[in-house]
Amino acid sequence: ARGGILFVDEAYSLAVGGDGATSKDFGREAINELMTVMNDGDPVFIFAGYEVEMQAFVKSNQGLFRRIDVTYHFVDFSVPELATILRYEVKRGGFRIEEEVTDGQLVALLADNTTESMRAKMNGGLCRRLFRAARSQLDQSLSLSSSLDEMTTILHAHLEAAVSEVAGV
Q1: Contacts of 39 (CB under 8 A, 6+ apart)
Q2: What are the CA-CA distances from residue 77 to residues 8, 81, 120 (Å)?
Q3: CB-based contact 1:43 (threshold 8 Å)
Q4: What is the pLDDT of residues 43-55, one digit of tens each?
Q5: Which regions of 10-167 does DSSP assign to beta strands (E)?
Q6: What are phi and psi of 70, to 5 degrees?
Q7: Low-confidence ranges of the chain (pLDDT < 70)
Q8: How far apart are CA 45 and CA 124, in angstroms?
Q9: What tens digit of pLDDT does each residue of 98-133 get?
């Protein structure tokens, strides 16, 4: 990775090891190997993960803290941002949300049917799950005579059923 960037998502999982007596802890071994080249700044290391778990990760090895120069905390997406991400996910998947569904309706659907805790835990991943569930709802509503437009248009009813499914309502 020389000359580049090494991105380690869910880096805290490296610090969760075996019992030390009977199992080999490859996560700690990986951390030790990474630290041997971290001082050079080449490659650039990006360790990502949930805030509390990442604090434990940094504390798992005394040398990590002094080798990590900069940390960033990203706040969770707001409900309007999640609505925008949902529209993006749908479009990226080759589908569209029916024109009658406004941004305000999407925001209300998310705000009223998901908890703050759920949104924080899933963040942008919530939108991917909602899209998959809405697509499944769409699939179930199709017939052999459905038009291409009908096959690629997610209705408000599909979104309502999807959010109920994902939220466990």
Answers
A1: 67
A2: 21, 6, 8
A3: yes
A4: 888 999 888 899 9
A5: 44-48, 96-97, 153-154
A6: -135, 140
A7: 1, 17-25, 169
A8: 23
A9: 999 999 999 999 999 999 999 988 999 999 999 999
d(CA 29, CA 10): 16
3-state DSSP call for residue 142?
Answer: coil
Residue whose token pair is 């380690």: 8
Assessment of whether the complete model's pTM goes beyond 0.85 = no
Tracing tokens 């809405």 back to the chain, one arrives at 134
Residue 90, beta-bridge partner list: none
Instruction: Give CA 48 to chain center in angstroms.
Output: 12
Q: What is the pLDDT of residue 39?
A: 78
Residue 6, φ and ψ in degrees, nearest 5: -110, 110
